[in-house]
Write a structure and sequence with these properties.
mainly alpha, 2-methylcitrate dehydratase PrpD
């Protein structure tokens, strides 16, 4: 597994092998599998992401009753032409909400990199494929890009809210989606890493404060925010706007911030939104009914 995005940038520039292929080769070596087998597995993962969206059920509610049906409401609002954010971003928002709701309602999703952040990469990728009519093979390549970014983050910092707050989950997912989107828009390794840095920078310090300890509130809505953040970061990158802090240093900063966070805002369900009067009320009412 690569431990620095700079290594991937340097290797792509020196060898001419694209970012995604470098990640694939590294994974095949680590997992002792053929490139063909690896690619088939990545296509399967992408199809599973699509299924998690297509099999959304607006009638389902989570066990707590806090989550469900809101993706359908956003779809209705979008189809009525009332969203001001434009068709592409509106579509991505809807997908992120539906996929994350499906997770809370115990339907099948792809953890990317975690279950709590499952809607970010999937929504951005499904949205851009739909908009640009991109082949499934190209989307699988983009998943390698996203996986490579996630691998570096895991190596240098962490991917779980318990370890580093929600910046490690939604932040990492947003960085992965941003880098993958830049690849799909024709960017090189330097652009991929830059977009990941911009996306992660925007979410540094984000607390993991799930109400009642459930991956529902505010987690589901944060998937929408992470997806849109990925798009803006990719757009900035494609316009030639660069992060003043190198990508690997941004990841290191996330690690530093995460280690300094109080455990109350690291997935314990004690602080932040979980510790508000309303958050406590939900937790107590659920403990009585369960």
């Amino acid at each position: 597994m690569y431990k620095a995005l700079e290594d991937l940038i340097r290797e792509e520039q020196s060898s001419g092998i694209p970012f995604w292929k470098l990640v694939q080769k590294d994974d095949c070596k680590e997992q002792n599998k053929s490139e063909e087998q690896s690619f088939q597995e990545m296509q399967y993962i992408y199809r599973s992401m699509r299924s998690s969206f297509e099999e959304y059920d607006a009638k389902l509610l989570s066990a707590s009753g806090l989550v469900g049906g809101e993706g359908a409401r956003l779809q209705k609002w979008r189809e009525a032409g009332k969203m001001v954010s434009g068709e592409f971003i509106s579509s991505v928002m809807e997908k992120a909400l539906k996929i994350s709701e499906s997770n809370a309602c115990m339907k099948r999703i792809v953890a990317a990199p975690t279950a709590g952040s499952c809607g970010v990469v999937a929504a951005v990728f499904l949205g851009i494929q739909e908009k640009e009519q991109i082949s499934e093979e190209k989307m699988a390549e983009a998943l390698y890009v996203a996986a490579g970014i996630g691998g570096v983050i895991a190596s240098r910092a962490f991917l779980s809210g318990a370890a580093g707050g929600c910046q490690a989950e939604i932040g990492s997912a947003s960085a992965m989606a941003a880098g993958g989107l830049v690849y799909l828009l024709g960017g090189d390794a330097e652009g991929i890493a830059n977009a990941a840095a911009l996306a992660l920078k925007n979410l540094l310090g984000l607390a993991c404060d799930p109400v009642a300890g459930l991956v529902e509130v505010p987690c589901v809505k944060r998937n929408v925010m992470g997806a849109v953040n990925a798009i803006t970061s990719a757009e900035l990158t494609m316009a030639g706007i660069r992060s003043k802090i190198p990508p690997d240093e941004v990841i290191d900063a996330m690690r530093f911030i995460g280690r300094g966070m109080s455990e109350e805002i690291r997935e314990t369900g004690k602080g932040g939104l979980a510790g508000t009067q309303t958050g406590i009320h939900y937790r107590e009412s659920m403990s009585q009914s369960w």
